[in-house]
Every structure is written in C-alpha cells, then in structure tokens.
C-alpha cells in the first residue's frame, strides 16, 4: 500500500509519526532534552505591564479554536471539492478530519500530559498534542492543496502559502506565550498532522497530482 505514495508522502509518513513517537517516549521517560526544549521558549512571566498584550493575544487565540477550523474545512469540502465533483479528494479530506481528530483524542488520553502551570486561557484536560494547532494544520493542508492552486499567478500562490506558514507560527507562539501548551505539544500536533495526511492516502486510490 505504501508504494502508492510518492517520495514526499513516504518521508512525511515516517518522519511525522517517527517524530511523534520520539516525543511520546521522551514524555514518558521525562527526558532532559525535552525539559530544556520546552523551557527554551518565553512563557508569560506575570508582569502587570503585559496585561493589555495578554488580552489582545487571547482574542487572536480565540480564532484558532478547533470548531472554527472545522467550519472552514467543511466549507472547503463542500464548495471547492464536492461541488466541483472532486469526490476522491472529498473523501480523502473527510477521512483526514475524522481519523486525524480521533488519533489526536486517543493520544491525549494515552499520554495524559497536563497543561503548563498558570495557563491564561481556558484549556482542555490535556495538552499533548495540541488540538487547536492540529485542527489548524488540517485546514492549512486543505487550503494548500485545493484553494491555492486556483490562483493563476505564481507570486500569489507563493504569498498565500507563506502566509499560511506564518499563521501557524504566530498561533503556536501565542499559545506558548499564554502557557496553554508546551512547545513540544505544538511539535507533536504538526508531526501528527503531517503523518496523518500521508497515512489517510493509503485507503484511497492514488490521488491526482495537484498542479501549481
């Protein structure tokens, strides 16, 4: 089945799940490198001078909720895939959303990693992997594959893809700064989404090539 994937898909499959596996083992064994990695990023220090910044960042963070990401994913599937009779791509997108979120939920229940102390926003029970970042990654995949190629100019496609990557980075840094998740939780979400993107293709016929 893996032979149906191209070289990039294979790298994404084994690289994404491999990185996720290493992170899980590091949490279970409380590895020193993971501790230093998570503490190498700036968390909220508690200064009253940053209260206005915290409020602004919290508002931005609200737009990264899984429900909002799911809403836009559904819109893409309906208007850019199903209505254009791209049924194989529609099935793949639905499989990615369902199986990806199921895997994310199971991992959270398996690892049961608590959130960083002093989270400044409402958080779920566990932080590994970050559901919000995983949902954003799925949305980015759909925009990247099915919306961006519709733009005629190369500059437009490059600009939009750059903005998508920038969006992920900004949201990730905001969540870290607000003590909502650990940096390794972000990395785990990205790794899981990359691995699931390729894994879900195993259950379908070879996908069509997307032209830039």
From TrEMBL:
<keyword id="KW-1133">Transmembrane helix</keyword>
<keyword id="KW-0472">Membrane</keyword>
<feature type="transmembrane region" description="Helical">
    <location>
        <begin position="90"/>
        <end position="108"/>
    </location>
</feature>
<feature type="transmembrane region" description="Helical">
    <location>
        <begin position="12"/>
        <end position="35"/>
    </location>
</feature>
<feature type="transmembrane region" description="Helical">
    <location>
        <begin position="63"/>
        <end position="83"/>
    </location>
</feature>
<feature type="transmembrane region" description="Helical">
    <location>
        <begin position="128"/>
        <end position="148"/>
    </location>
</feature>
<keyword id="KW-0378">Hydrolase</keyword>
<protein>
    <submittedName>
        <fullName>Phosphatidylglycerol phosphate (PGP) phosphatase undecaprenyl-pyrophosphate phosphatase (Promiscuous activity)</fullName>
        <ecNumber>3.1.3.-</ecNumber>
        <ecNumber>3.1.3.27</ecNumber>
    </submittedName>
</protein>
<dbReference type="GO" id="GO:0008962">
    <property type="term" value="F:phosphatidylglycerophosphatase activity"/>
</dbReference>
<feature type="transmembrane region" description="Helical">
    <location>
        <begin position="160"/>
        <end position="180"/>
    </location>
</feature>
<keyword id="KW-0812">Transmembrane</keyword>
<dbReference type="InterPro" id="IPR036938">
    <property type="entry name" value="PAP2/HPO_sf"/>
</dbReference>
